[in-house]
Every structure is written in C-alpha cells, then in structure tokens.
C-alpha cells in the first residue's frame, strides 16, 4: 500500500479505520532509508516516499497483530 492519490496522513487514517477488518497490509520497500531520502534527491516522489516510510515507522507498534 502506498499513498498514490492520498497523503501519508490519509493512509494512516485508512489503516486505523480498517484495522478491525484487516489481517494486515502489504507494502513494498525500495531499500532506501529515510536518512537517504532526506539527504538525497529532492523530488516529489522522494518526498512522498519519505512521508510513507516515516508514517509506517511511527505506526509500527500500533499495527502489529
């Protein structure tokens, strides 16, 4: 799952609201760390990916089953 047409905040809200109905969520990790995105290329794609990574890091404990 990746926020293509929504913000990372909206994706976070979706995860929270779907948790009672979901067994989990699937995403894909490109292999770059948040630090690499912060110090590397400054593009909209990098910014979206960084926000997505930070959101999942912040939610990691809350979304474990």
TrEMBL record:
Name of the protein described by the UniProt record: Uncharacterized protein
The organism of origin for this protein: Blastopirellula retiformator
């Amino acid at each position: 799952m990746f926020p293509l047409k929504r913000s990372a905040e909206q994706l976070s809200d979706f995860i929270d609201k779907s948790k009672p109905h979901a067994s989990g969520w699937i995403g894909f990790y490109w292999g770059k760390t948040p630090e690499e995105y912060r110090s590397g290329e400054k593009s909209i794609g990098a910014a979206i990916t960084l926000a997505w990574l930070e959101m999942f890091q912040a939610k990691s404990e809350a979304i474990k089953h």
